[in-house]
Amino acid sequence: MAQARNPSFGQNVSTNSALQRLDNLASRFFNKYRKGNQEKSQESDGPHVSEYTIIWDGAMKEFLDKAKDEFLRKWECPLQSTTCLDDFERLKTLGTGSFGRVMLVKHRETEQYYAMKILDKQKVVKLKQIEHTLNEKRILQAVSFPFLVRLVYNLCHCRVYVSKKHKLLCHFLCHIHPHARFFAAQIVLTFEYLHSLDLIYRDLKPENLLIDQHGYIQVTDFGFAKRVKGRTWTLCGTPEYLAPEIILSKGYNKAVDWWALGVLIYEMAAGYPPFFADQPIQIYEKIVSGKVRFPSHFSSDLKDLLRNLLQVDLTKRFGNLKNGVNDIKNHKWFATTDWIAIYEKKVEAPIIPKCRGPSDTSNFDDYDEEEIRISETEKCAKEFLEF
């Protein structure tokens, strides 16, 4: 189902052993290809293929193949509960949603801070979100990428993520337009990774993007993510970010994420989305029309990229063509982007959220606290059998 633009929250596990293995693997691949490129440059003073072509194509393909093996291993053997609710001290609500809330918690034994997502199972069933909830849990426990949140504990009624201090990207929209390329590059790499695993994200928007203490993005809220090898037909997402093929119920594939990337880049650069109106139906009409108006300060390269991402014709949309994501990464608007440095977080971030420590919640809004009560009887055991 389509949803209003409300904040969602989650946290990253950069210290997780699986992610560390993939980071080390990626570094070895990238360094190998970087060395090869330097040797080729020294051998000839004449023209040679671009650094991106030599380094990234081969390195990323090999890395993604290894990453997919790691993902499939965890996908087939989901994370089992290794702790209980009483192991955590619940400190403060960071955000609320339709059927639950996210809280900052501290592990009593290790004194590590985490973000805990607590679900009301009866509301999940009532809102017919069981499949989405199960998908989110299974996906998050299996993915490992620098710009993704990751599940570390799965309890009966909640999920736990390692906590780092973040601020929602939407809080920075009025300051972010000069730096849209920096954040967009991270989303491109993230979608390249997810799509290689046959995952469609389906809910890109500023409210689902966190900026960590190093100034890099963390993509959160995988409630609409789904593993799809062909097409799917579910109407879900946020009205301003829906691709036309979702609205028209034609069946869709991973290309909807590249459309959403176009919407996000536009909103980061302009401060408002390309399609907006008072009512969702009016937004949908504008989206399917395919007509986009650009602010005067948009560069010609930016407008060209957006025209190719916000392309109603799927046979012409960047990311969905023969060259796949390379049409986006090789575009002139990204000409100055060092993709390897972005992946390795070696590019100096333009925005660093202020943080006084692991228990600092000043970057989040205040919410009324409610007592968390666990039912003594399992009322939705059948529906959550695989949870």
Automatic annotation (TrEMBL):
The keyword Cell division does not apply. ATP binds at residue 117. It comes from the Eukaryota. Residues 335-387 form the AGC-kinase C-terminal domain. It catalyses: L-threonyl-[protein] + ATP = O-phospho-L-threonyl-[protein] + ADP + H(+); L-seryl-[protein] + ATP = O-phospho-L-seryl-[protein] + ADP + H(+). Its EC number is 2.7.11.11. GO terms for molecular function: ATP binding; cAMP-dependent protein kinase activity. Keywords: ATP-binding, cAMP, Kinase, Lipoprotein, Myristate, Nucleotide-binding, Serine/threonine-protein kinase, Transferase. GO terms for cellular component: cAMP-dependent protein kinase complex; cytosol; nucleus. Pfam families: Pkinase (PF00069). The keyword Transferase applies. Belongs to the protein kinase superfamily. AGC Ser/Thr protein kinase family. cAMP subfamily. PANTHER family: CAMP-DEPENDENT PROTEIN KINASE (PTHR24353:SF116), CYCLIC NUCLEOTIDE-DEPENDENT PROTEIN KINASE (PTHR24353). This is cAMP-dependent protein kinase. It comes from Electrophorus electricus.
